Amino acid sequence: MSDVKYRRVMLKLSGEALAGEQGFGINPPVIRKVAEELKEIQEMGVEVAIVVGGGNMWRGEAGAAMGMERAQADYIGMLGTVMNALALQDNLESVGVPTRVQTAIEMRQIAEPYIRRKAVRHLEKGRVVIFAAGTGSPYFSTDTTSALRAAEINADVILMAKNGVDGVYSADPQKDDSATKFEELTHLDIINKNLQVMDTTASTLSMDNDIPLVVFNLNEPGNIKKVVLGEAIGTTVRG
Ligand code: UDP
């Protein structure tokens, strides 16, 4: 435990990160790999909270673009995150990691409602806590949820797991050869340079509450552990 840089982490897993190469839905081998990596850090004594996204299922904005009412479309998106959370819970438990899912919209038959003090207690007992259904409110994102929950539970860092991209770049590295990677940034840089790491609401919340962020590539095996140990991979974003 002495080598660990971050003792309580908030991992933001986008829906895409659970979809693998198919780009939509849930890819069981991909989730299994994530679960195995999380088991490693949980066994090192790191307290792990996770916010799962839902973009592999549905995005509220896309629904609104097709003519749906935005709030209604966003609720569908929040339900998508619950499906991901249950799949992740199943995988974590099958590799022997105790977990709890807490939802911001009550569905007591399948998960606990979000109760901050209970979540912290679970973390202290070594359980991985998965936060689902976002903030419970439309017009927000799961990036914002991760910043909000990180502040609420006093997480040391937000770990922003990316699908194939190893940090924050000056432009999209898949489209622009001149794109360069940043080693360090501030939340304000992200807002001012419009770097699209997380949405502005999530960035301002992280900035105001002084929560650092590490953006790293989830597809590289062993990266979650490296980040937790403080190895210089990805991009670190400070208050
Ligand atoms: N969402 C919402 N409120 C929240 C979090 C999420 O309405 O607090 C909805 C929103 O429609 C969003 C969808 O859930 O498009 C999926 O979340 P997100 O796009 O953040 O997932 P990710 O991109 O991380 O997979």
From TrEMBL:
Its recorded reaction(s) are: UMP + ATP = UDP + ADP
For region Involved in allosteric activation by GTP, the annotated ranges are 20-25
Gene Ontology, cellular component aspect: cytoplasm
Indicate the principal place this protein occupies in or around the cell.
cytoplasm
- Where does the UniProt annotation locate this protein? Cytoplasm
- Give the GO biological process terms: 'de novo' CTP biosynthetic process; UDP biosynthetic process
Q: Name one GO molecular function term.
A: UMP kinase activity
Q: Which SUPFAM superfamilies match?
A: Carbamate kinase-like (SSF53633)
Domain of life per record? Bacteria
The EC number(s) this enzyme carries:
2.7.4.22
Residue positions binding UMP: 54, 74, 135-142
Keyword ATP-binding applies: yes
Chain positions recorded as ATP binding sites: 12-15, 55, 59, 163, 169, 172
* Keywords, ordered alphabetically: Allosteric enzyme, ATP-binding, Cytoplasm, Kinase, Nucleotide-binding, Pyrimidine biosynthesis, Transferase
Entries under HAMAP family matching the protein: PyrH_B
Q: How does it assemble?
A: Homohexamer.
Tell me which NCBIfam families the record gives: pyrH_bact
Name listed for the protein in its UniProt record: Uridylate kinase
